[in-house]
Amino acid sequence: MKISSLLSGFSILQLLLFSFCYFNSFHTATSYSFSDCLANSKIPKNQLKNIIHTQCSTNYPTVLHDYIRNGRFNTSTTHKPALIITPFQESEVQEIVSCAKKVNLHLKIRSGGHDYEGLSYTSKTTFAILDMFNLRSIDLNIKEETAWVQAGATLGELYHKIWENSKVHAFPAGVCLTLGVGGHISGGGYGTMLRKYGTSVDNVVDAKIVDANGRILDRECMGEDLFWAIRGGGGGSFGVVLSYKINLVRVPKNVTVFKVRRTLEQNATDLVYRWQNIADKFEKELFVRVFLQAVNSTTTPGKMTVRASFIAMYLGDSDKLVSIMEKFPELAQAVLDRKSRSSLAFKMKSDYVKTPISKGDLGRVFKKLIESKIVWMMWNPYGGRMSEIPETETAFPHRAGNIYKIQYLTYWNETGPASDKASIDIVRKFHDFMTPFVSKNPRQAFLNYRDIDIGSTDNVGPNAYREARVYGEKYFNGNFDRLVQVKTKVDPTNFFSNEQSIPVLKN
User: Fold this and answer.
1) Bridge partners of 376?
2) How many CB atoms lie within 10 A of CB 110?
3) Distance between start and end Cα atoms, the chain
4) Beta strands 107-110; 128-131: pairing state
């Protein structure tokens, strides 16, 4: 079968361009090429031109850049995929995976493009992106309080669909509306209902995945081990997650939100110290996070200070909230767009805190924050439902014993090796400074706040497992070994891999 049979719906010019681009990109292609395989697949020939985008395709730049959320990886020197494949049907994903495996084509799987290190759309070697954005159907069943959501849907689309059908249902997931459902859920996504209902994976009851053999498996067919793994272990290590069946949760018709800002001059240190000792003990319905950043002082011109923003959501009315906040009177006074609002370059890291930072050490932290100038921190409280779920219930392990999680972040406008290094070095040094105050042995990290600094692997050679264990134990604690066992069973050739994927245990 020749390429002409694959692309019978193309014009002669399109055919020539495809042939040139394809073979220019895959100069080591075997005689049984990816194109030959797809030509013999069940995908209709006239559909192939709609789902295969080469570097010569007119819409290739748009398809590539629309879902790059980090400007660090949107430069002229970033290694680009040879192909971007955008299936419309789940059966097409089966064919794509099967053909890619036959010719050893490395697939990166992208659902929303929010991987902080760009691992879903970059690679140092020749690769193709399997982009899921066309697979975004949402099938709600309000009577059963469930929904099937395809991996390419965004959280904004999911929330809007729920809102259209019910004012007393929701799904506990993130606050960024452009997050892709597939990546967010598979990594253990969370939001402001974390303390009431747990993470997103705590509310998943079924799933569909294309495995390394090209089979579509639901929970019954894949078995409980694989179902466990794709709830918090990252779907990209085990197959292509097509959809999740989620439980909808009950919420009041009216909820209460508030924000209170205080600087160091307004007693922010005392308030943050008190927050550490109470935020994980509030009623489950109340979630109060703290956003910390260095800002210009409004009282002393030319001086920097730290501003603490207490941002809260309460699942109830304001009258009840006031009574709850008597424990913290200082605070009591107080979506369908799929495109990201910002293309800035950024670097993020994470930590978990198990013991409150002393007031004196908070002073040191805030001084360092002012010195860094560009580092921000978000402190997210745990407790509530998170303390009730065993760490082995799903692959996501960070449960009881954690008071809060820290997200470190910094953004910058100008991209390039020098500016990237300068900004990244600042957040790395700040992260190093925080070492005495956070979890240890291992220093835990959150998979969805992807951080290549904590370790990586090239997935080849005798050291691959040892390399993966470094970051694997930080992301998954004691669950790492079970994830390796599942991976070895369902994908023994390590077809699905990236720089921080779950490794295969070799004999």
Assistant:
1) 293, 409
2) 29
3) 39
4) parallel
What pLDDT, in 10s, does the model give residues 480-493?
999 999 999 999 99
304 and 296 Cβ atoms separated by less than 8 Å: yes
- Determine the Cα–Cα distance for residues 483 and 501; give it in Å rounded to an integer: 10
Residues across the chain: 507
Residue 10 DSSP code:
S
Task: Please state, in angstroms and rounded to a whole number, the distance separating the CA atoms of residues 186 and 231.
Answer: 5
Residue 309 β-bridge partners? 261, 291
CA-based nearest residue to 113, from 157, 152, 144: 152
5-50 pLDDT, tens digit per residue, is 444 444 444 544 455 455 455 544 433 588 889 888 999 989 998 9
Q: What is the pTM of this model?
A: 0.92
- As a whole number, mean pLDDT of residues 180-209 equals 97
CA-closest candidate to residue 230, choices 173, 183, 171, 191: 183
DSSP 8-class letter at 39: H
Q: Which amino acid is at 27?
A: H
Quick one: pLDDT band at residue 329, thresholds 50, 70, 90?
confident
Annotation marks residue 449 as catalytic? yes
Q: What is the pLDDT of residue 459?
A: 87
| pLDDT value of position 2 | 42
What's the mean pLDDT in 494-506?
95
Task: Give the Cα separation of 214 and 204 in Å (integer).
Answer: 23
Of the candidates 62, 179, 68, which has an alpha carbon nearest to the alpha carbon of residue 117? 68
Catalytic residue among 352, 382, 408, 449: 449
With contact defined as beta carbons under 8 Å apart, do 444 and 398 qualify? Answer: yes
The answer to whether residues 346 and 265 touch, using CB atoms and an 8 Å cutoff, is no
